[in-house]
Amino acid sequence: MIAEILPPDSSFSRAVYTEIRPAIPRGQWPMDALRATFMVAPDGLSLQASFEGLPGPAAAIATQVVARAKVNLVLASPVAYLAGSVVRARRWRDTFLYALLPVLFAIPLMAPLGETVMRLTMGLFALDALALILSHGALMQARGRAIEGRFIALIPTPGLRIKVPVGTPLHPQG
Fold first, then answer.
1. Dihedral of CA 82/83/89/92: which sign?
2. Which helix H or strand E contains 51, and what residues bound it?
3. Which residues are CB-contacts of 108 (< 8 A; sequence separation ≥ 6)?
4. Total domain count for the chain?
5. Are residues 110 and 44 in the same domain?
6. Domain range spanning residue 63?
7. pTM for this structure?
8. What parts of the sequence cross the membrane (predicted)?
């Protein structure tokens, strides 16, 4: 589901333009604003893009440049909160995943200390495994919401006149 269409004068569209402008020769740009569809990558740290109106090789280069920009464009995008939820869910999942193996190997090591300690370690392992399963489910839900958060941005092209509101970083007040 496409949530919104960003105009060429939006801060995100200008940020994408500054990233891809050096990589694409001026002769390959369209006359009007460039239409691009963006969505959060599965890792939540970058955006995946598809450009309409550019020749095939130039569109592939622009897609790579957007993916290489990583967090800089994600933070400027309207889906930054969705990407943040993916990163947080992945961090919790990884925490429980990396704690699982040491606790598993601690079970037989606790046996000489007593059966009660060994049972407590087994219980800790079971709780960690349950937390891992729940956090992985939360990660899958966050990724699903992020994929649904696709949006379209109209990217300005060289020579396209856009109106920049007064007081923005590109047009400081005198």
1. negative
2. strand 47-52
3. 118
4. 2
5. no
6. 2-79+148-155
7. 0.73
8. 95-114, 120-140
